[in-house]
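Input (structure):
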């Protein structure tokens, strides 16, 4: 019974609205079955064992007819009926779970198909070719952009879902080099406090959207802005990764909608995606937080549990 209940809970609370609705209906049926089981079997048997009623007093009423000793027979009948209902309930749960898994497999297949059409490995090779063309023709900017972009693309198509914070910061440095070539002299960048946490495990590609938001939105009206990434430990063994800028700040409406998990809007899709990734991996207590700084500018920071890379003893 406990195992069945755990299987039911695992199915009913998958987070999808349709799945949750189906789970609630199944939960109601499950509750009714358990209630019938208790009222029709356990309670009469307890009354019989404790002497509250005698075996002769237990009768089964069908219409206007009383059948002696019928309650006991009814209990047996109900037990068999409940067993059959539970059997078919488990079959229904297994069937619905299989349908959901098949749908997920279909979605994964569609994603792989799109990735195959994009052929990212060909793009990586093309960027490597551009890198050498830039070197041979004495244009280091083309060479550097091609090399950095190829590394970022390889990280995007990697099957690894988590990486070391140190590797994520190195990938971020490559992105910043590209943006400095695109916006020469427009901003400075510094990372602070990260040295003690480079062996922490984080979801891949969560830092670049935070810095991109600062460059494209926070510093849109600045010619010499500043971006600072800071890493620190918070109470409860939490890792705080913050990106701050001294730009124009974030509109209050954006902060409000973000705090309410509102739908993504054009221009800040990266922040919404990172927030969703953190919540899916770690739970709704984690994710991104947006705020405007009292001295000007804005800060976007991520909170996630501290998980360090395991090392061999």
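Output (sequence):
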């Amino acid at each position: 019974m406990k195992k069945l209940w755990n299987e039911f809970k695992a199915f009913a609370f998958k987070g999808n609205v349709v799945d949750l609705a189906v789970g609630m209906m199944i939960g109601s049926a499950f509750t009714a079955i358990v209630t019938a089981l208790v009222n029709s079997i356990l309670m009469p048997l307890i009354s019989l064992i404790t002497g509250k009623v005698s075996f002769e007093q237990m009768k089964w009423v069908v219409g206007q007819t009383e059948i002696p000793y019928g309650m006991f027979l009814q209990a047996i009948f109900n037990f068999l009926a409940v067993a059959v209902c539970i059997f078919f309930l488990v079959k229904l749960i297994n069937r619905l779970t299989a349908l959901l898994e098949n749908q997920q497999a279909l979605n994964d297949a569609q994603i792989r198909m799109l990735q195959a059409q994009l052929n990212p490995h060909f793009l990586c090779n093309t960027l490597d070719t551009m890198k050498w063309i830039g070197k041979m023709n004495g244009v280091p900017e083309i060479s550097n952009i091609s090399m950095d972009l190829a590394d970022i693309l390889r990280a995007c198509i990697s099957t690894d879902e988590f990486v070391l914070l140190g590797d994520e910061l190195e990938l971020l440095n490559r992105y910043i080099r590209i943006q400095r070539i695109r916006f020469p002299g427009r901003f400075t960048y510094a990372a602070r406090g990260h040295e003690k946490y480079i062996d922490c495990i984080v979801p891949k590609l969560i830092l670049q959207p935070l810095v991109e938001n600062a460059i494209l939105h926070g510093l849109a009206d600045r010619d010499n802005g500043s971006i600072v990434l800071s890493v620190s430990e918070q109470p409860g063994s939490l890792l705080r990764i913050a990106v701050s800028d001294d730009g124009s700040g974030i509109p209050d409406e954006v902060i409000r909608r973000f705090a309410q998990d509102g739908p993504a809007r054009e221009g800040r899709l990266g922040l919404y995606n990172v927030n969703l990734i953190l919540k899916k991996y770690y739970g709704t207590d984690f994710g991104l937080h947006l705020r405007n700084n009292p001295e000007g500018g804005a800060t976007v920071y991520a909170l996630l549990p501290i998980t360090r890379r395991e090392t061999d003893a």
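Notes: The radius of gyration is 30 Å. Residues 183 and 223 are 9 Å apart (CA to CA).
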